[in-house]
Design a protein that fits this description.
The protein has about 210 residues and is of the alpha/beta class. The chain has one domain: Rossmann fold (3-Layer(aba) Sandwich), CATH 3.40.50.150. Helix content is about 40%, strand content about 25%. It is built from 7 helices and 7 strands; from the N terminus they run H-H-E-H-E-H-E-E-H-E-H-H-E-E. Strand 6 and strand 7 form a beta hairpin. The chain starts with a helix and ends with a strand.
Amino acid sequence: MTTQAQFWDRIAPKYAQKPIADMTAYETTMRRTRQYLAASDRVLELGCGTGSTAVRLAPDVAQFTGTDISGKMIRIAQGRAEAAGTANLTFATTQAFDLQPPAAPFDTVLAFNLLHLLEDVPAALREIHAQIKPGGLFISKSGCLGGGWPFLRWVIRVMQMVGKAPHVGFFTTRQLEEMISDAGFEILETGDYPAKPPSHFVVARRR
C-alpha cells in the first residue's frame, strides 16, 4: 500500500512545476495572512510542500519553520529557500505533529491545503493547539467538499483507486469551524478563496 509520504514523494517534481490554479485566491490568502503576522513572530507551517508559501512569508517574521511528510518536497523547498537567500527559514521532514523544535510553542501555526488531507482532523487540531502559545494564532485554508460537489467527490474516489489522489476528507465549512472551535480556538476571521468549491480560510486564536 502506498503511504501518504510515498504519494507526495512521487509527485513532488511535477507538483513543484505546477502553476497555482487560482492566483487571485492565493494572493488574497497571502494578503489576509500577512495582516496577522508580526516581525517578532516565530511561525510554523505544517504541510509546507515545496516551500513557495514559506519563502513568500518568511521575510515578514523573525523565524519560520516549514515541515512536510515528503522528503522530496522538503528538498525542493530547501533549494528554493537557498535561491531566495531567506536566512530565517528552515525546513524539516516530519510527520505532521511530531516536531518540537526549540521555537515551540509558536506565535502562529499555518496549515494551508492540509486539514482535508488528514485522516483524523480533530486529533490534528488538538496537536496544533499544543504547539501554539496562549493567545497565538492558527491560520489555515482547507478544501470543504462535504454537503455537495458529488461529481468532484466521485472523481477523487476514482483517482484514489488508481493511486492518483491522496486521502481526502469531506466536511462542510461549518463542520470545519466547529472542529477548530472544539479544539480550543476562538475564530476571528473566515473567508472562501476561492468560493467554489469552497477553500475555507480560517484565522483562529488559541484560548
